[in-house]
């Protein structure tokens, strides 16, 4: 069964990961995000609880 032979596929996988790690990843990480996270604290509004007739 030639599908189980890892010789050519392991090298292709290894080279693709090395390409991604060395070339593509620094290029992608250099982009600035369009919506940077804000340091504003969020407060949750206090809502009155429901008065259920069966409780």
TrEMBL record:
Coiled coil: none annotated. Keywords: ATP synthesis, CF(0), Hydrogen ion transport, Ion transport, Membrane, Mitochondrion, Transmembrane, Transmembrane helix, Transport. Residues 37-49 have a biased composition (Low complexity). The keyword Transmembrane helix applies. The chain crosses the membrane at residues 6-24. It is found in: Mitochondrion membrane. It holds the Pfam family ATP-synt_8. InterPro entries: ATP8_metazoa (IPR001421), ATPase_protein_8 (IPR050635). GO terms for cellular component: mitochondrial membrane; proton-transporting ATP synthase complex. Belongs to the ATPase protein 8 family. This is ATP synthase complex subunit 8. It comes from Pitta sordida (Hooded pitta). The gene is ATP8.
